[in-house]
Amino acid sequence: MKITVDEVGDASVVRFQGNLDTNTAPEAQDRIDELVERGVARVLVDFKDLDYISSAGLRVLLATAKKLGGQGGSLGLCNLNETVNEVFEISGFSMILNVFASEQEALAGF
Amino acid sequence: MIELGTIRCGTDGSVREARRKIRRAVEALSDEGMLGGRIASATSQLLRVVNQMSGDARLDLGLDVDRDRPEFVLAFIGTDVRLEDDIPPAFFDTVRRVTIDGKSVLQLRLELRSVRDGALAEPRLRALRAMIEKKDRDALMRELTVKNQELQESFDNLRRTTTAKERMESELNIGRDIQMSMLPLEFPPYPHRNEFTVFATLEPAREVGGDFYDFFLVDEDRFCFCVGDVSGKGVPAALFMAVTKTLIKSRATNDFSPASIITHVNDEIADGNDSAMFVTLWLGILDVSSGRLVYTNAGHNPPYLRRASGELVRLDRLHGPVIGALEGLVYGEDEEALARSDHLFLYTDGVTEAMDPQGVLYEEDRLVEVLNSGEFDSVESLVAASTEDVWRFQAEAEQADDVTVLAVRFEGRARGASDVHVLELEARNTFEEIDTVNEAFETFAETHGLHSKVRRSLKLVFDDLLNNVISYAYNDDEEHVIEIHIELSSDRIAVRISDDGHPFNPFGRGTPEKGSDVASREIGGLGIHLVESLMDEVSYTRRTNQNVVVLVKYLSQNTMEKESA
User: Fold this and answer.
1) Distance from CA of B497 to the nearest CA of A (A)
2) Structure pTM?
3) With contacts defined as CB-CB under 8 Å, which chain B residues touch A22?
4) Which one of B200, B289, B450, B532 has the lowest number of neighbouring Cβ atoms within 10 Å?
5) B506 interfacial to chain A (CB closer than 8 Å)
6) Which helix (H) or strand (E) holds B551?
């Protein structure tokens, strides 16, 4: 998996390429934790190049949302493919996380 | 080495059985005339020697395809039997003594000089394994003897410790427990088979009732199924049922005629039947490749055949009276041709004799009405429609008798080796291996044009299930192997994951609490919930020392279309 982070305005955009699963979750968690610890308030995760996410990946998202919420920030997600979307529906994550269709929409909206 | 199965033999009876199996195995693999018989004779002589020396022999059968010619391998495990100067006995090519897992293994190898066409294709090997693993008559009888002993013990125990009234209640409960424990309860029982489906339900009444059903594949094509009703209740009825069921199964192993099976079972039961108990029985054998159904009805309610067109046919031929009443009867049989999407519907009199609160009987007309109503596109929907109607009718009246319904649907599909793609993988219990599995699956999925949505769902499923096994299944730090078997056919993808961890059924734990906001949300149990939701069928079985999880995902028209890369 490849992870890149760009600063867009006051938000950090995290882009995952590959899978967010058992073996990639620890690295993903580390990269996002760095941002949270640095005090970044808005984190947007772009899933455009993500193939699939398993429960290990969902765990990372939930932990991040909790940490950001605890310090007054917020987490946004965008560009979910069909499978990721289904997983979000089944798990109820689409109800509790901020999901957007595109990066533009997300940056304007969360 | 391809493993074909294990034969255990401790008595002369099972040597005969082993001989028969080895003969059939060799004949399935090679078309050299007489070879099967010769090898079987040579092996059974050896088995007798082994039995004399160590009392209990275990024989593993396998196929070594890494040679110039495939070799059929017989391995006697844990035996110190010496062959004279280790010269291979007649008809074998080589003999080797090796040590596997600290056990001495005597390996005999037979070169297959003329392999039967298609014999090494996976479906044929599967049939071969099923034949070898099938419990023989003696093993079934031994199992039954042990079960009977256990029952007798708990029964004696009960007699000592309880009052008469309690005893009667408990006896009914024990009878009920035995009855229910003998039914196949896992559905779908054959997720890998697409030629037919079967579904059954048995709702026991509180007091009376001795219903049972059973089904099993006799071989790759013959599917045997039956429904019966034993007279009486409690432990005696349950034992009578156990005996009947066991006799049917052991007879059906090498007798493919329902009439002959029932004639023999009747003789065995009627002989010395002092209790004057009896059983009504309907038994059919369906050739799942052709749809030919042969059946015998021994005093049971006539079942219905619901044609795909909607036409309802009552199979009302009776071939003899109930079983167990009279020795020496000869039962007949009839034939019916099933076509694609035909359903066969079997039931017991608990259905037609269900009563509403005013004491009115349900009767067959109401059943016919249900069977005539609507479209039934699965065995499950047919069974549900019929039983729900009975419950509605019965309302709050007490259920008077067991209610049993069994449905079989013939799909009329050819099972072909050519349109089934198989991927077999082995993963060790480390997280890195999940990636290896998913990479291999990715290649497999791309090669066969599996839709990306299904491919992604399955990769997620592999990640969550394997993570679960690797994290929780083992109590030791040893290396373990997890087996993954994937079958892709035109309309479904079926996955079997087997691990040798401690017994654990991951499924059926319900939906995890979803929480209304991020702060209250927990994550436990989510992986399994995703698996259950993304797959169409999930099931768990414990086999000897393995947890076996089977998953099926049906490919819809959308997801069946090949994707262009």
Assistant:
1) 18
2) 0.46
3) 431, 434, 463, 466-467
4) B289
5) no
6) strand B546-554
CB A3 within 8 A of CB A15: yes
What's the gap between Cα B10 and its chain centre?
A: 25
Residue of B nearest to A92 (CA): B514
- A22: nearest CB among B457, B467, B518: B467
Cα(B1)–Cα(B377) distance, integer angstroms: 42
Residue B197 bridge partners (DSSP): B409
Candidate from A8-22, B27-41, B485-499 with smallest mean pLDDT:
B27-41
Give pLDDT, residue B562.
Answer: 46
B460 touches chain A (CB under 8 A): yes
Question: A87 φ, ψ to 5°?
Answer: -60, -40
Condensed to tens digits (0 to 9), the pLDDT of residues B317-352 reads 999 999 998 888 999 999 999 999 999 999 999 999
**Average of pLDDT values for B278-301?**
95
pLDDT digits (tens, 9 = 90+) for B39-82: 888 888 777 777 666 656 688 899 998 888 899 999 888 666 66
Per-residue model confidence as pLDDT tens digits over B140-172? 777 777 777 877 787 777 777 766 667 677 777
Q: Regarding predicted confidence, which is higher, B12 or B211?
A: B211
Round to the nearest angstrom and report the end-to-end CA distance of chain A. 26
The span from the CA of B31 to the CA of B119, in Å, is 10
Q: What percent of chain B has pLDDT over 70?
A: 89
Longest CA–CA separation in chain A, Å: 33
User: Minimal Cα–Cα distance from B527 to chain A, Å?
Assistant: 5
Amino acid at B532: E
Count of CA atoms in the C-beta half-sphere (13 A) of B537:
18
Chain B CB contacts of A55 below 8 Å:
464, 467, 523, 526-527, 530
- Separation CA B191–CA B496 (nearest Å): 10
Percentage, residues of chain B above pLDDT 90: 42
CA distance A93 to chain B (A): 8
- The alpha carbon dihedral of A48, A52, A56, A58 has a sign of positive
- C-alpha distance from A22 to closest chain B C-alpha (Å): 7
CB contact under 8 A, A92 and B515: yes
Residue B201, pLDDT score? 93
At residue B416, the pLDDT reads: 47
Give the residue, A102 or B546, on which the prediction is more confident: A102
Q: Report whether B349 contacts B229 (CB < 8 A).
A: yes
Looking at the predicted structure, is the pLDDT value of residue B353 above 50?
yes
B509 interface with A at CB cutoff 8 Å: no
If you ran DSSP here, which 8-state letter would residue B144 be given?
A: H
Size of interface A-B (CB pairs under 8 A): 82
Quote the CA–CA distance of A67 and B521 in Å, as a whole number: 13
Peptide bond into B303 cis (omega under 30): no
| E strand or H helix at B485 | strand B481-488
Chain A contacts of B459, Cβ < 8 Å? 19, 21, 51-52
